[in-house]
Amino acid sequence: MTREIPLCEVPKVFEKAVILEGSVLEEYDASLEPLNERARKWLKQYTVVDGELVGSSPLMQIHLLNSGVLPKEDRLATRLDLEKAIVFDDEKKVLGTTYTDFGLALKTAGDNYDIDGAKVNNAIAKRLANQLERREIALDEGVLIPFSALTDISNEEEYWGLTLDLNDFATRDTIRHLKEFEWTFSRKEGLSCASLDGGRYWDFVDEHLGRSDGDGRVVVIRAEGTPEKILGERTPDDYAQKVQSSKKEYTEKLIKLKDQIDAEIRRSQ
Fold first, then answer.
1. By C-alpha distance, which of 122, 158, 145 is closest to 42?
2. What does the radius of gyration of the chain's CA atoms come to, in whole angstroms?
């Protein structure tokens, strides 16, 4: 059994955040067969350890969703889901040492990230920016695009073997501006992975859309059961109060960390 975090939603649905099981890997691998060799290279960087699917990258999660491999009762965790999950994961047993990606951060309509002389994200960044403009969604200072708003398309000309399109879920309601959230580390331009890192840092600094390693996990939100069985004598207000209290504590820690980083920068200058 993989690790999970109970999340209480009231009044009718009980949800939990779950590390996706490795049982999906066989079907996932089969879904890669129609793709070009380059795409398969980046999308196959995963294994199974202790029943969990090990690895996380934006390209993998987008394909996992669009291929239909993701179990029907699951949805990929969003930034807001993960904010809630770390509140209930007090002892950091689930989201304490691993990282997970939850979207793409698009800062500018173009990207200078270079691998072996190729600007590997530039065409995709321009493509997504143009599609946002046609939908009258302002890029402004950058947007957070959830995986559910993206479709992957096999394309041998791209470095990743894939290109990305916005789908019908890409609306002003689902695509949020980066400035609406707090970030520990960020990038000034281009297209990056939006991630929750093992140190519980929120960042969009990694430009390598296909990178995956043993610390990565795919987090899904799974609905089941009824909240009454989980809440016991605790009320929804108890959980709401806990969320607010923890959010305040987390914000204070971020401010302290930023002050420490600023101090280090000043000392090094």
1. 158
2. 19
The packing angle between helices 79-88 and 236-268, to 10°, is 100
| Residue 266 to residue 158: CA distance in whole angstroms | 41
Q: What pLDDT, on a 0 to 100 scale, did the predictor assign at position 3? A: 92
Question: pLDDT category, 255, cuts 50, 70, 90?
Answer: low
Amino acid at site 107:
K
Residue 32 CB-half CA count within 13 A: 22
Q: Where are the beta strands (DSSP E) in 97-149?
A: 100-106, 114-115, 118-119, 143-146
pTM of whole model > 0.70? yes
The closest alpha carbon to 57, from 266, 263, 217, 239, belongs to 217
Strand 202-206 vs strand 185-186: parallel, antiparallel, or unpaired?
parallel
Q: What is the pLDDT of residues 3-13, one digit of tens each?
A: 999 886 555 56
Lowest mean per-residue pLDDT among 78-82, 109-113, 114-118, 248-252: 248-252
Q: Is pLDDT of 121 > 80?
A: yes
The backbone region for 39, taken as left when phi is positive above 0, alpha when psi lies in -120 to 50, beta otherwise, is: alpha
Nearest alpha carbon to residue 185 among 206, 166, 160, 169: 206
How many C-beta neighbours within 10 Å does residue 174 have?
15
Residue in 166, 216, 226 with CA at minimum distance from that of residue 193? 216
